[in-house]
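Q: Please design a sequence for this.
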């Protein structure tokens, strides 16, 4: 559950979570400033002022501010130190493959193979440079995003009110608060006038909280501490003055930020799979090198020759382009997502979202707009539905029939009271008169927009009914009223909680007549209010009266006009996004701090809960997850909606899903989401409405706050993984063919058909570009028609390894056959026959890229043939192959010579054999693979 008391917060700070621990409770007797006041909400305003030794009118002096800042430090949350460019560069060399290539450089240098050593070193340098710049760009982009938000505060110092950077606030500062301000520190209110605050980012509650200055009981829960303002929340209405009682990590926001730091950041699935593949490649390389080297020496071959062959095998076994191509493919995926308003912090997170099986999403501001909208009215003449616009039908309708407010004696007065009894404001375009902006409490702006649907605007009505004075909202009475001049009468416009207003209303407007509100009628209205509430709507009652004097009691003798049902509407794109997730086999679960009935209503509206799942579960069930049996946990995970969930309970829920084998994505925008964003396999924060803490805890930020962007990111993640799998299969099958060619020739006592430097040239040049083209593929259109792959499945499952061996064997057979025919059939010397083997192998690897199409796709039109990068890569590689043969300096270094026409024909013919055989095998197996439900993207 949420932190319940100030004592809990500050004891945690004193135990060492805050870098300003030593100053958290300075001792005034030793000359220090007054210490932070625990549980300030329990003390009176005067007591808090006295504790901090400050004047509300004058504020702190400059000398005292400097002294307190020295004790308490800046008013900022603890941030991780930006990663330096040097450390980012070092990370590029923390790879087993890079380590193995480095060993090859050392061995080549030791035996005097300086050209080979330089070439391998160049590969390492190119790979590091590409990885460095892509990682640096991603990290610096996120750091730039974090610097966009600068919050100021209006503070009284030395008798003047001035705007300062929120970072400079200290305990004891007197802060002036107005509607629209973002609260910069935890404040104990000493003055409050119609003050309301949106604390949804902290507590999950979507409705504004009414504030006052009275002390509260010690056991008052955080969402009910109505005499406090908390850092990171927003003032929606009114004004006030507060005294800073906590700054930085000592605030409630800071406590949740600390909780986020406690959550362990799990390694992403892609990172685990690439690390596993790297280990497999290294051990396989060492094993093959030792085996073939020992076998060669045992058969009487010179030790130096076998060591040279071992180096060639090491170069052949390790796909030098794998780290570089993987980095580029991931970076391209990140850039694609950035164009779709999804900013990625870590490259590996691009794929992780594609592996997601469960999305845990907040409600307020994520599934909903975080604003109130009137959707239904209950009038004496019947229920009236309210449309969001007139595009799909009438704005006001009863039983499907349009209603004209001018022709309804009960509807028009209700709309007028909603507009008059209001403190919000609408900005309108001077030309068209259309509403451009709404300022104020979300509920009151919703009522103004309701009136605007009928052309009623407050400034116009005030011209007709000038306001005399206002009875501000009374938290005890739960009502407010504005009194207006209407001819020689005073007109009272009243709104409030249904139970409060119904208890004071004496009449009800029936047509144009006021009729006595009987006991039966009062019960009917109460039942109607409860019915609206059960549907998750916030309900207001509206009433009016006319009197001879404006001094009459505002809440006596009221005439009931009707009930207003308001809803925090779902985002327009959410229903389609959730439906897409369901088609893709991804569960979407709402996890919110709001009430169960409201959460259920929103879940139904967006298609999250179709009525077949488990009922809404409240977070208290998650208080002790370890006590749940395995069956209870599995049953709990079938729930679609969790309500009244605290930050700690969100962490427990994520752990339950992860323990069940799920890959969990968590979306949210509030401070209360930050721990879960960090704990999840991938955290997704809202960029527009999201808090700074949420963005810093996340792996991905949705810059447009659109839930639909998540679906696009999931599709992109799946495409990236499929592309990575394709180019890994391509690279490993090509490199395996090189191993088999060199190994078989060495064990058979034959001359090497391809030399070590030629292998390196192929791996760096002719392998990398087609592989990168595969990594840049747009993917198949039906990628979201597949269910998520098994999270436990390795990067390359058994079927991919079988494909690698089969492809490698066919390329090997074709190359060795061409090499043998060049010697025996064309009568070439071994050193000239090497050119035929080189060309056969190089061309076979190029045509092999067409074997990477998805199973079941068309032979001529598929994701490979539609990829323009593939054709560009083939053209470039053909040019590089010709350069290797015909460019004087390069051909001499590589040991190649121009072949005859017969040699070209031999190489070209046998280079096509692996591609033809691969296409035949794919055509035969396509039906079986499709029927087995294989994930799209498998070659």
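A: Design:
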């Amino acid at each position: 559950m949420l932190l319940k008391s100030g004592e809990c917060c500050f004891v945690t700070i004193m135990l060492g979570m805050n870098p300003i621990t030593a100053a958290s409770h300075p001792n005034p007797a030793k000359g220090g400033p007054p210490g932070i006041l625990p549980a300030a909400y329990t003390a009176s305003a005067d007591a808090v002022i006295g504790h901090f030794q400050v004047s509300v009118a004058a504020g702190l002096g400059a000398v005292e501010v400097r002294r307190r800042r020295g004790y308490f430090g800046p008013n900022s949350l603890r941030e991780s130190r930006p990663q330096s460019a040097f450390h980012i560069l070092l990370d590029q060399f923390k790879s087993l493959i890079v380590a193995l290539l480095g060993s090859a450089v050392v061995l080549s240098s030791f035996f005097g193979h300086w050209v080979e050593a330089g070439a391998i070193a160049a590969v390492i340098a190119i790979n590091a440079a590409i990885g460095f710049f892509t990682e640096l760009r991603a990290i610096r982009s996120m750091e730039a995003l974090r610097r966009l938000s600068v919050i100021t505060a209006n503070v009284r110092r030395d008798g003047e009110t001035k705007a300062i950077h929120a970072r400079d606030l200290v305990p004891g500062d007197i802060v002036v608060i107005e509607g629209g301000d973002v609260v910069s520190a935890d404040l104990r209110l000493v003055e409050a006038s119609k003050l309301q605050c949106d604390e949804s980012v902290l507590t999950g509650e979507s409705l504004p909280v009414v504030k006052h200055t009275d002390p509260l009981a010690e056991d008052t829960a955080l969402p009910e501490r109505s005499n406090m303002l908390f850092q990171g929340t927003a003032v929606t209405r009114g004004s006030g003055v507060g005294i800073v009682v906590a700054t930085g990590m000592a605030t409630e926001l800071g406590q949740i930020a600390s909780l986020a730091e406690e959550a362990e950041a799990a390694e992403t699935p892609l990172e685990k799979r690439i690390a596993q593949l790297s280990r497999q490649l290294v051990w396989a390389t060492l094993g093959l090198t030792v085996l073939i080297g020992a076998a060669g020496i045992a058969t009487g071959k010179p030790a130096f020759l076998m060591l040279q062959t071992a180096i060639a095998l090491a170069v052949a076994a390790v796909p030098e382009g794998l780290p570089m191509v993987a980095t580029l493919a991931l970076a391209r995926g990140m850039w694609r997502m950035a164009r779709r308003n999804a900013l990625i912090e870590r490259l590996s997170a691009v794929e992780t979202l594609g592996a997601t099986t469960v999305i845990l999403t907040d409600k307020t501001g994520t599934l909903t707009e975080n604003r109130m909208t009137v959707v239904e009215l209950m009038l004496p003449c019947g229920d009236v539905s309210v449309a969001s616009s007139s595009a799909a039908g009438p704005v006001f309708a009863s039983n499907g029939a349009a209603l004209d407010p001018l022709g309804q004696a009960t509807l028009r007065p209700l709309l007028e009271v909603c507009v008059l009894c209001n403190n919000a404001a609408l900005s309108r375009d001077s030309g068209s008169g259309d509403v451009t902006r709404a300022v104020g409490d979300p509920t009151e702006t919703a009522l103004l927009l309701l009136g605007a649907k009928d052309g009623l605007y407050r400034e116009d009505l005030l011209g007709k009914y000038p306001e005399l004075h206002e009875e501000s909202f009374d938290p005890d009475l739960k009502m407010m009223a504005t009194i207006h001049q209407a001819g020689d009468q005073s007109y009272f416009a009243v709104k409030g909680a249904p139970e409060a207003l119904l208890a004071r209303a004496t009449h009800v407007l029936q047509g144009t007549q006021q009729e006595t509100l009987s006991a039966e009628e009062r019960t009917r209205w109460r039942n109607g209010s409860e019915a609206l509430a059960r549907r998750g709507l916030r309900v207001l009652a509206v009433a009016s009266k006319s009197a001879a004097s404006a001094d009459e009691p505002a809440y006596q003798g009221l005439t009931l006009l009707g009930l207003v049902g308001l809803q925090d509407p779902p985002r327009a794109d959410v229903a389609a996004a959730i439906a897409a997730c369901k088609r893709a086999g991804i569960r979407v679960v709402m996890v919110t701090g709001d009430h169960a009935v409201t959460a259920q209503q929103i879940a139904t509206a967006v298609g999250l809960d179709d009525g077949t799942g488990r009922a809404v579960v409240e977070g208290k069930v998650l208080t002790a997850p370890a006590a749940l049996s395995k069956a209870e946990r599995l049953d709990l995970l079938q729930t679609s909606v969790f309500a009244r969930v605290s930050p700690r309970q969100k962490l427990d829920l994520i752990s339950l899903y992860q323990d069940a084998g799920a890959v969990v994505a968590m979306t949210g925008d509030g401070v209360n989401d930050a721990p879960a964003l960090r704990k999840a396999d991938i955290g997704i924060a809202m960029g527009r409405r999201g808090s700074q803490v949420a963005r810093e805890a996340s792996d991905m930020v949705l810059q447009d706050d659109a839930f639909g962007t998540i679906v696009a990111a999931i599709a992109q993640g799946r495409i990236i993984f499929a592309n990575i799998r394709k180019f890994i299969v391509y690279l490993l099958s090509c490199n395996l063919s090189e191993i088999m060619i060199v190994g078989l020739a060495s064990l058979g006592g034959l001359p090497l058909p391809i030399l070590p430097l030629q292998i390196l040239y192929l791996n760096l040049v002719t392998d990398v570009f087609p592989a990168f083209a595969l990594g840049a593929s747009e993917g198949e259109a039906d990628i979201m028609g597949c269910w998520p792959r098994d999270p436990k499945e390795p990067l390359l499952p058994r079927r991919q390894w079988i494909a690698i061996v089969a492809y490698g064997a066919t390329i090997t057979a074709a190359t060795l056959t061409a090499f043998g025919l060049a010697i025996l059939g064309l009568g070439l010397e071994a050193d000239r026959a090497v050119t035929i083997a080189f060309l056969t192998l190089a061309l076979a690897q190029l045509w092999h890229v067409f074997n990477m199409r998805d199973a079941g796709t068309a032979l001529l039109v598929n994701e490979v043939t539609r990829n323009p990068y593939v054709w560009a890569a083939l053209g470039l590689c053909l040019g590089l192959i010709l350069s290797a043969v015909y460019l004087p300096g390069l051909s001499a270094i590589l040991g190649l010579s121009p072949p005859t026409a017969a040699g070209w024909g031999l190489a070209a013919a046998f280079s096509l054999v692996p591609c033809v055989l691969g296409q035949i095998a794919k055509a035969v197996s396509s039906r079986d693979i499709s029927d087995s439900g294989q994930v799209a993207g498998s070659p």
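Q: Thanks. Anything notable?
A: The first strand starts at residue 152 and ends at 157. DSSP finds 31 helices and 28 strands in the chain.
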